[in-house]
Amino acid sequence: MSTMKEQPIEQLDMKRSSYHLIIDGERRESVSGETFTTVNPATGEEIARVSKGTIEDAELAVEAARQAFDHGKWRHFPVNKRSRILNKIAGIMRARFNELVELEILDTGKSLAAAQGQVMQAIEDFEFYAGAVVSHRGSVNAMPGAFQNHTEHEPIGVCAQIIPWNYPLMMAAWKVAPAIAVGCSIIVKPASLTPLTAIVLGEICLEAGVPAGVVNIVPGSGQDVGNYLVEHKKVNKVAFTGSTPVGRKIMEKASSTLKRVTLELGGKSPSLVFADADLEAAVDGSLFGIFYNSGQSCEARSRIYVQDNIYDDFMRMFIEKTRKLKLGNPFLKETHVGAIINEDQLNVIDGFVQSAVREGATVETGGQKAVVSGYENGYWYEPTILTNVTQDMEAVKEEIFGPVVTVMKFKDEKEAVRLANDSEYGLGSAIWTKDHARATRVSKQIEAGIVMVNCPFSAFPGTPFGGYKQSGFGRELCVETLDLYCETKSIVAYYGSKPLNPLGI
Ligand code: NAD
Asked: Rounded distance, CA 34 to CA 495, Å?
């Protein structure tokens, strides 16, 4: 095994030709010496080689994290000191904002605006948890007579954090920040398609003063590294964001060691547009709701339901604006829709569209792979609107994870709620109406973790994010997330003047 201690962590060029694992405070090649390449989805060009973690590396990372947790000082630092270091991480990220944005665009093919927003949110997540952890308190509970009870939060231990490719840095921040804020040690397994910014985040954590072994980053395959971490006896918790089928497997495997589990899974989020909505706002919000991040969003509003008496007006405006969306150079401000992550995903998206068409759906616009001038070797899909669809079509039921939306009509509020809830998923949802009472009534009936009322955005630092039903459980991005990285200890004490003798002997 070759360690790379000679290369200082500070201020490494973010955009470089090779990236390595981070284990026990060192940049390391993998034990096997294997590497894999990452590709820019917009161009199909290779960006860099990345050390490929295997089970041996995962084991080293677990040992390092265990050692740091059981015998290290991080969890024993005064909370203000951990908070300061989180702010320092955010400060370094702010100072290197443009580099992070550039790297994220290269690794994912996403548009400049999307990458900028996500990198900024990742920074703000660290700032949020730096503040939130300071007031993360236990409770004092009512007790009879001379008894007293209070609770304390203790960090849960070593956490495996498995993240997807659609928001690589932001998903890493959602997990890393709360876990280290409370004093846990972590092993992050980024998606193999997009490992670069998570690796850089690990380097920044070290630069900011997080002690060796607290933050370990092990890119590698899910079957191999991910699975090993999920089953490992010395890992106390697994926090997973990814698809529902993999989430189910993880829950099953984690049960053998009774690991704590949080699952942020897939979605098929509905958007309900009522006749009294501000139509322009509903159209613009729906456009963002599905085509942002090229539709590769867990909370993409991929099923739109429009009240029948405004359906024609909505569709006219929605189709017109969809046709104006620009695909192309992700680095340009005027590009709205970036690339699709890889060829497999491109084919999955097209498969859903073609199967819907075979079942009778109408393609209002889009409907095929896009050829983008200057980016012919990249992976692109036309923003697509499907109508004449039914609830039982795969395109309406399944998560497509691409720029494809289905639109149907509803008659009244009751039918809108029924259609919205007719899904195995329950992550996001949107309601467009000027009637506040209706918005309140409908939001109470929607089976989803997030309801956006006249609002295109779903996630701000501090707002709980997570799903109902098959979209998983546990909430990220909020104060409550800190609880999910802690055990609660209840301390029951007696301060009476007479000693207790419960058995009377
Ligand atoms: P995925 O489930 O294929 O992979 C996610 C991660 O799990 C990757 O790092 C992968 O390597 C790893 N993995 C795969 N098999 C594994 C196994 N057997 N054991 C352990 N780890 C394993 O998902 P993806 O394609 O990377 O991401 C897209 C999915 O993520 C979509 O379904 C999307 O909705 C979901 N997502 C959800 C949220 C949310 O907050 N709910 C946010 C972003 C993405």
From this structure: 61
pLDDT in tens, 49-96: 999 999 999 999 999 999 999 999 999 999 999 999 999 999 999 999
Q: CA-to-CA distance for 220 and 291, rounded, in angstroms?
A: 29
pLDDT tens-digit series, residues 430-466: 999 999 999 999 999 999 999 999 999 999 999 999 9
Q: What stretches of 215-370 adopt beta strand conformation (E)?
A: 215-217, 237-241, 260-264, 269-273, 301-307, 362-365
Q: What are phi and psi of 162, to 5 degrees?
A: -110, 125
Span from the CA of 118 to the centroid of ligand 1 (angstroms): 18
Q: Helix or strand or coil: residue 487?
A: strand
Residue bearing tokens 């604006």:
321
The CA distance from 218 to 221, in Å, is: 10
Strand partners for 39: 46
Distance CA 371, CA 374 (A): 9
Residue 23 tokens read as 């284990």
pLDDT, tens digit (0-9, with 9 covering 90-100), for 1-13: 334 443 444 556 8
How do beta strands 260-264 and 21-23 pair? unpaired
pLDDT-based confidence at residue 16 (cuts at 50, 70, 90): confident
Helices (H), 43-161: 55-71, 79-95, 97-108, 112-132
Task: Find out whether the beta carbon of 299 lies less than 6 Å from any atom of ligand 1.
Answer: no
Ligand 1 center–CA 135 separation, angstroms: 32
pTM for this model (two decimals): 0.96
Domains of the chain (ranges plus CATH)? 15-265+471-489 (3.40.605.10), 270-453 (3.40.309.10)
Please report which helix (H) or strand (E) contains residue 38, including its range.
Answer: strand 35-40
Is pLDDT at 134 greater than 60 in this prediction?
yes
Cβ–Cβ < 8 Å for 142, 134: no
Cβ–Cβ < 8 Å for 465, 480: no
Cα Rg of the chain, angstroms: 24
Whether 159 is catalytic is no
Q: Does 102 participate in catalysis according to the annotation?
A: no
Backbone angles phi, psi at 428, to 5 degrees: -105, 175
174, 463 in Cβ contact below 8 A?
A: no
Cβ(377)–Cβ(268) under 8 Å?
A: no
Closest CA relative to residue 50, chosen from 173, 202, 175: 202
CB 379 within 8 A of CB 337: no
Could you tell me the distance, in angstroms and rounded to a whole number, from the CA of residue 248 to the centre of ligand 1? Answer: 11
